[in-house]
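Schema walkthrough. Field components (list of strings):
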Amino acid sequence: MSFREEHELHKRRFGRNLGLGLVLAGFVALVFGLTIAKVSNEDFRVPTQQGEGS
Amino acid sequence: MSDASLHQASTAQPGEGGFGDFFALLKPRVMVLVVFTALVGLLAAPVALHPVEALAAILFIAAGGGAAGALNMWWESDIDALMRRTRRRPIPAGRVTRDEAFAFGITLAAFSVVMLWLATNALAAAILAFTIFFYVVIYTVGLKRWTPQNIVIGGAAGAFPPMIGWAAATGSVSIESVLMFALIFMWTPPHFWALALFMRGDYDQAGVPMLTVTHGRKSTRRHILVYTVLLAVMAVGAAFTGIGGPVYLIVALVFNALFLRDAVAIWRRDEDMAEADDYRVEKRAFRLSLWYLFAHFTAILAEAALAGLGLGGLGFGGWA
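Field assembly_structure (string):
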């Protein structure tokens, strides 16, 4: 049991911080996904040296 | 600030806006239209993006559109406070300060443009940057309080998203993306003038030179008819271009016939008739105009899907 009732202002701040946290987490996940998508792209592949492996 | 002073404050203080208040600054209802039309532009393009790149592109276009909305609310907070429709927005309601809205909008605008560039290409990012500039500087700051043609020219800002989506996928601008732009551009004036007719008083009070205020309501009714006729010609004509086809043609014929019917009805009415039934026809035309745009862009998407399955044209050879 808490000592005093939480003020509406604290609830609002908590909501804003939680929302921002979720947005940032989503952004990190998106950038990670983008990175995977970009490096998986054919254009991104480093060309192998001619005659390598032959 | 002591706890006692915190407890004395019963209403939200400036600078203490919640997450929802900042989200409201992005104009989420307008964002739905931006996201949908940009998505259609992106999916209708002949080049397929990786799904993650497509998702990122749509999110950053939405963020850019939202940033423009926040900057619009920052500039217009004085007139928003005067209009019934807008007085509960975060700034006039005192939940977010003007400085906060400006900082939020300008940061999000720069962020969305840079991220769209990194996620897709420079052209898409450049069109997004121009769209934000056009909406905030040309429309909001320049035209809106100066000319009754504000809606006509400012409508271009809302017409860019499908072009950005197309550019994100293809890296180019083509006749198809210009046609999608033209469809929204021509649709915007009758859509907003129908709203202005039944939201009477709001714009007068705020001193915004809407056509209803400067040229009168009779003239506005005539303008709605003229623009709807031009829109119908363009919308149906687009069926015979690269974005069209039989599905699009059927949708265009049905919705343009309905929109024209309402435009003619609005033109034939006077204020006494409109007040007698509480602007029933004007409200119906406004609601229909929302479905109109949704239906046309869904049809464009359907045509692209059919073309992807090798069913494009369906016997209407030479259309694609």
